[in-house]
Amino acid sequence: MAYGTFNSVTEVATKFDIKVDKETPFVNTKKIEIPNRLFSLIEKKLRDRINYVSEYAICETIIRPILDIFAENSPLKIWSHVAYNVDKEKGLIGEPDYLIALRNKYGGMETPVLCVIEAKKDNFDEGWSQALAEMVASSILGATNCYGIVTTGAFWQFGKLENGVFVIDPISISALRELQYILNIINWIFEEIRCGRLANDVYCTRAQTELFLFEEGGQKKD
To answer: pLDDT for 161-204, tens place per residue?
Structure first.
């Protein structure tokens, strides 16, 4: 069994004793301004049906460019389709679409704090089952708080796992109509991670230190 073989959120929650809350809104926003040219380019990609012909197309022409906006000047890196094998017996293995995490001193990936999933065949429940399994894997590695995003490219949903409670924000947001709102939410999530809302103080200290290096010199110092 791997992350993508779980069939439902209920299956994952039952297996790992996770409380599920699908009714409580939790997302907030932090305003981000991006160049008009980039914003228009993303809007154009969202409107072009050719970008929805396959899972790969959705990932690489819509999801990845949006994530790149936030990772470009952040110590948090985008880990695309890399092996994330935590516990084979529990089904916590596989290559997730995108994991957001720091890079450790050996060049490898720290514990992910944000999991981003492309909803296969527009099936959000299966997408969230995979995302939750990945978030559980992060909790096993020590993260007390991990965020999740499941998207078809056109619609976006947000969730988080904190201290054994999984919350899915009940609103599915249209990128075609509310792209700026989605960008503001993702910016807020990155800010929450950066500001030390996670319980892993070592992680937060490293993230804040690297962010300072970005802001001080305009680019990360090696």
So the answer is: 999 999 999 999 999 999 999 999 999 999 999 876 443 444 45
Number of structural domains found in the chain:
1
Task: Look at residue 73 and tell me if it is in a domain.
Answer: yes
- What is the residue range of 37's domain? 3-217
Whole-angstrom CA distances from 105 to 73, 109, 110, 125 are 19, 9, 9, 36
pLDDT band at 1 (very low <50, low <70, confident <90, very high): low
Residue 28 lies in a domain: yes
- Tell me the residue ranges of DSSP E strands in the chain: 19-21, 77-80, 98-101, 114-118, 145-151, 155-162, 165-168, 173-174
**222 assigned to some structural domain:** no
Q: Is residue 132 part of a domain?
A: yes
Q: Please tell me the pTM assigned to this model.
A: 0.88
